[in-house]
Design a protein that fits this description.
With about 250 residues, the chain is of the alpha/beta class. The chain has 8 helices and 9 strands. The mean pLDDT is about 95. The structure holds zinc ion (ZN). The site of zinc ion (ZN) has 5 residues, from strand 1.
């Protein structure tokens, strides 16, 4: 469905210079077992691809842990607390903002961290994925004191550490056209986005040590989006200069 040849041409340049491009995969909004989640996990299993599930702590049910515990390639991140929007209608949606007392926001995050750590003793990765990829800087500074060791939002990171002790590993490619069809962004656009990200990394314009993240939302995928994800995985796995890594536990990062 996708013509990845422009990306392969760029990866050939990586190969020539002896470099390997790292990719990772984050999927948001898990709370319970659903047919869509089963689809997602089957795809991960079939492709032997590691994934980070961003789980909403307030609503996560025990069965979710049972479904994921036998799979060693799944890691679990904290997706806010309740994924509730506290911003007024005039602003973009945000749970982790300063619309409430920061002590309240931080105590919810601490509670969510504790709940998921207990639910997923093996896969828990001490990472925070803010809902809508938004969090205020004043809150970011407090995250490591709550036990978080990584933060993941969207767009190439500005710095390796978002604050002392808190690595940042973001996502970069979102195949969903949220403000239109809610189906797949044009495949040509996604191919070009991927190519440009790789080129910018190779040229040192953005941080090449940050693995490029594919961001998905299993609950809302239609067939076109599922098809793209499968094609994307195959693309990464087919070229000798690209590979999937466990983004939020990336050892050399
Ligand atoms: Zn979300």
């Amino acid at each position: 469905m996708c013509d990845w040849s422009p990306v392969y041409a760029e990866l050939d340049r990586w190969l020539t210079s002896g470099k390997v491009a790292n990719f990772w995969w984050r999927d948001d909004d898990a709370i319970e077992q659903t047919p869509q989640l089963e689809n997602l996990l089957k795809l991960c299993d079939a492709k032997e691809t590691p994934i980070t599930l961003a789980v909403i702590p307030a609503y996560a049910v025990t069965e979710l842990a049972e479904q994921t515990e036998v799979r060693g390639h799944i890691s679990i991140a904290v997706h806010g607390y309740s994924h509730q929007n506290y911003a007024p209608k005039t602003e973009k949606k945000r749970e982790l903002g300063l619309h409430r007392e920061s002590l309240i926001v931080l105590s919810e995050l601490a509670e969510g961290f504790g709940k998921l750590k207990a639910m997923f003793p093996d896969g828990f990765n001490q990472a925070l994925v803010p809902p809508w990829n938004r969090i205020d800087e004043l809150l970011v500074e407090q995250l490591s004191s709550l036990g978080f060791s990584s933060l993941s939002t969207f767009q190439p990171r500005q710095a390796h550490y978002a604050s002392p002790g808190l690595r940042q590993i973001n996502c970069h490619i979102d195949p969903i056209e949220w403000h239109g069809t809610r189906s797949l962004v044009s495949a040509d656009v996604l191919v070009e986005q991927t190519r440009v990200l790789l080129e910018r990394q190779r040229l040192g314009l953005i941080d090449a040590k940050e693995p490029l993240g594919l961001l998905t939302h299993h609950l809302v995928h239609d067939d076109a989006i599922w098809g793209f994800i499968e094609s994307f995985i195959k693309m990464v796995q087919n070229h000798p200069a690209s590979q999937f890594v466990i983004g939020l536990e990336h050892p050399s990062d």
